[in-house]
Write a structure and sequence with these properties.
By secondary structure, this protein is mainly α. It contains 18 helices and no strands. About 55% of the residues are buried.
């Protein structure tokens, strides 16, 4: 590899493990915090429109997460093979992988846009949306469904950046995109500074414009800073072979990530039987939850590239040590979060919607589910580590066990007894049980690497 190509790559196969994890995690925490901040801002501003608008976004959330999960899967597949190539110093292979992944992004995004626009009404009716919120959902999703290309491309591009050990640039891009969204939200939702009042449509436009800015930025940096985008005859000649390498991890990783929002769609439909206020309250709590578990998101984002680079040079002891340190962090930070959230929940939930029934439901959720956050962090880290090892199927099995075999049946049982707190307890119990299984499984796999 030339010096030009080495300049922006970090060698994760040497030096103290914990220092690499901290150095990579800090920019990710800041960037993800900014991204989650704009989700909270969305919730805050949409909550000002009314509970029906908040419920509409609650119904849309799992579908959007299915698209995001697909991008995470493709990102994981690309990052896994890219990290191993980076560990070996094979820049030509990195160019093939990165360029091919962007072609796949374009095809996948087009499919989501077409299918999404054609299925809005039947899909959301199936999820339990009534005639009060369905028109609001339609207003939002008819715009949002044009955004997948701007959502998926940055996700995959940032996975490429992480594979070479660079998280600082990703953090900056995420911050700027989030700031743009937060600024545009009130302007376009409420019609400030001469803009028309667009309400939910404005929220969708704000998101699309901010994501489009990220799209332009990542394409520029992959091309001119990391030098991994290059369209040539050789790229297209090897397209299917390179696609197979990416999809070896990408398809199962997509399955791992897509299982969760699909299950969440089912759970939202079950919660909808308790009324629109229940959906709105759960939406508020989940948006808050997404923000407070950013440390676990950051850890899962960096553990795959770390594992991949060290696997590329067969440095197995470093992999095992990184997994132990990650699990310890999840347990300690999870316990701290549980205490903080329990104290703060009653005061925070009313900021998003002061309707008592909605804030009460959100508070109950935040009393129960955070108990399991540490275990959920271990699940996320283990799944990402399996992807980094090029062994994605255990991650699929772990996610299936957590949400399909345990969570959905337990939630259905709670709904049968008409007990919403039990619905939330089912999610917490599933996280704890599967967290234990995930830790044992990934550590055993790491110890048995050849």
């Amino acid at each position: 590899m030339s010096e030009k190509h080495k300049k922006h790559q970090v060698n994760l196969t040497e030096g103290p493990v914990h220092k690499h994890l901290i150095r990579m995690a800090l920019p990710m925490i800041i960037g993800i915090s900014a991204s989650m901040g704009f989700l909270l801002a969305d919730t805050f501003f949409i909550g000002r429109l009314g509970p029906d608008e908040l419920a509409a976004v609650g119904f849309a959330g799992p579908i959007i997460m299915i698209i995001v999960a697909s991008s995470i899967g493709l990102s994981a597949g690309t990052s896994s093979v890219m990290a191993r190539a980076a560990g070996r110093g094979d820049h030509d292979e990195m160019i093939k992988l990165a360029t091919t992944s962007l072609i796949l992004v374009g095809l996948l995004s087009l499919a989501f846009t077409i299918i999404g626009l054609l299925t809005i009404n039947p899909l959301f009716r199936l999820m339990g949306a009534d005639e009060t919120v369905l028109p609001l959902i339609r207003d939002y999703m008819q715009i949002w469904y044009w955004a997948p290309i701007f959502v998926i491309t940055p996700m995959v591009a940032m996975g490429i950046m992480r594979s070479v050990g660079d998280t600082s640039l990703q953090g900056k891009i995420m911050i700027w995109a989030s700031l743009a969204n937060i600024i545009l939200d009130p302007i376009m939702i409420f019609g400030l500074f001469g803009f028309p009042r667009m309400e939910l449509e404005g929220a969708a436009y704000a998101t699309m414009i901010a994501r489009a800015g990220s799209f332009v930025a990542v394409i520029y940096y992959l091309t001119y800073r990391f030098h991994v985008i290059k369209f040539s005859h050789a790229i297209f000649a090897d397209f299917w072979q390179t696609t197979k390498k990416i999809m070896h991890v990408g398809i199962p990783a997509t399955g791992t990530n897509i299982i969760i929002p699909i299950a969440n769609s089912v759970i939202v439909a079950i919660i909808a039987t308790f009324g629109n206020d229940a959906v709105a309250g759960a939406t508020v709590a989940i948006r808050i939850e997404t923000f407070v578990i950013i440390f676990f998101f950051a850890l899962s984002a960096i553990i795959g590239p770390f594992v991949g680079q060290n696997l590329g040079v067969r440095n197995h002891e470093r992999i095992e040590l990184a997994l132990k340190q990650s699990a310890l962090f999840c347990i300690v930070w999870g316990a701290i979060l549980t205490l903080i959230i329990a104290l703060a929940a009653p005061s925070v939930t009313v900021l998003f919607d002061d309707t008592k029934s909605i804030s009460d439901i959100a508070t109950i959720y935040l009393f129960i589910v955070p108990i399991s956050y540490g275990a959920y962090g271990i699940v996320m880290t283990a799944n990402a580590a399996f992807n980094g090892l090029g062994q994605p199927l255990p991650g699929v099995m772990i996610s299936t066990l957590r949400v399909v075999i345990l969570q959905i049946p337990l939630v259905l049982l709670a709904a049968y007894y008409n007990n919403l707190p039990y619905v939330f307890a089912a999610a917490s119990l599933s996280n704890i049980l599967v967290g234990i299984i995930a830790y044992v499984w990934i550590m055993r796999t790491a110890r048995n690497l050849d």
